[in-house]
UniProtKB/TrEMBL annotation:
Keyword set, alphabetical order: Lyase
The species this protein was found in: Sporosarcina soli
One Pfam family linked to the record: FAA_hydrolase
UniProt-recorded name of the protein: 2-keto-4-pentenoate hydratase
Family annotation (PANTHER family): 2-KETO-4-PENTENOATE HYDRATASE, ACID HYDRATASE
InterPro entries: Fumarylacetoacetase-like_C, Fumarylacetoacetase_C_sf, Hydratase-Decarb/MhpD_sf
Residue span, Fumarylacetoacetase-like C-terminal domain: 105-262
SUPFAM superfamilies on file: FAH
Length: 263
């Protein structure tokens, strides 16, 4: 059991209740301006522990955020961030996502990696990541920042588990050796109209580079990834908003499509 500092318990409760009650809240740093990135990850740990307990879920992987230079520039940072994926966040392609349980969701296209072996360390390379990867698949990540108008600082978004809420993975997993993972083109449509195009190269130049960064960050905190874990490697384009009745399809070169309908 993680030791949660007293002054972090209030923030954990605040963020947990915001998600549970489907309610946007003002950002944490408005009240706690001195919080550090390290403390934000400690708060994230506490929030995730509470979430796992109350939802009866288990950890099934990690997700990366702020992996594009454009988004980092927008936020005035030069680092990516990571959060965790829980079993209750995984949605099935053939079942609609329930928007009544979401605050102001957006969806973004990503490549999902599944590990064929454990991965932990502090000097892990992109090549190590590729070697440890069993297969990859097209994915859609739904992000739903608990903060009003999706406005936050780096510390806020880390504490909020990097806006994570849901994700869908396409049914076709392929070996990473069959495709140029660093140069996969993607077109994302909503209700048949193209909304975004992108490339896996937007993910820190190569998704495996982004994952290696996350593994090394985790390693520095004494953590690692396990065989079978899923990793959402980062958005390949801007996220788009959606609402009940919408259908989103992302089509990835060489990987096929992943879709999501919304009720
Ligand atoms: O998965 C993501 O890239 C989201 C990271 C947090 C930033 C955001 O909510 O837009
Ligand atoms: Mg994402």
């Amino acid at each position: 059991m993680t030791q949660v500092k007293d002054n972090h318990k209030e923030i954990i409760d605040y963020l947990f209740c915001a998600e549970r009650d489907v309610r946007e809240v003002t950002k944490v740093t408005d009240d706690y301006p001195a919080l550090t990135v390290q403390e934000a990850y400690e708060i994230q740990d506490g929030l995730l522990e509470r979430r796992l307990q109350e939802k009866g879920a288990k950890t099934i992987g990690v997700k990366l955020g702020l992996t594009s230079k454009a988004k980092q520039k927008m936020m005035g940072v030069d680092e990516a961030i990571y959060g965790y994926l829980h079993s209750d966040m995984l949605e099935l392609e053939w079942e609609p996502v329930d928007s009544s349980k979401l605050i102001h969701p957006k969806v973004e296209p990503e490549i999902a990696f599944m590990l064929g072996e454990d991965l932990q360390g502090v000097d892990v390379t992109a090549e190590d990541v590729m070697r440890a990867t069993k297969c990859i698949a097209p994915a859609l990540e739904v992000i739903d920042s608990r903060y009003k108008d999706f406005r936050f600082t780096l510390v806020d978004v880390i504490a909020d588990n990097c806006s994570s809420v849901k994700f869908v993975v396409g049914s076709k997993w392929v070996s990473p050796e069959t495709i140029d993972v660093g140069n996969i083109g993607m077109v994302m449509s909503k209700n048949g109209k193209v909304e975004q195009t992108g490339s896996s190269a937007a993910v820190l130049g190569h998704p495996a580079t982004a994952i290696a960064w996350a593994v090394n960050e985790l390693g520095a905190r004494g953590k690692g990834l396990k065989k079978g874990d899923i990793i959402l490697s980062g958005a390949m384009s801007e996220a788009i908003a959606f609402e009940a009745g919408d259908t989103i399809v992302a089509d990835f070169d060489g990987l096929g499509t992943v879709s999501m309908s919304v009720k």
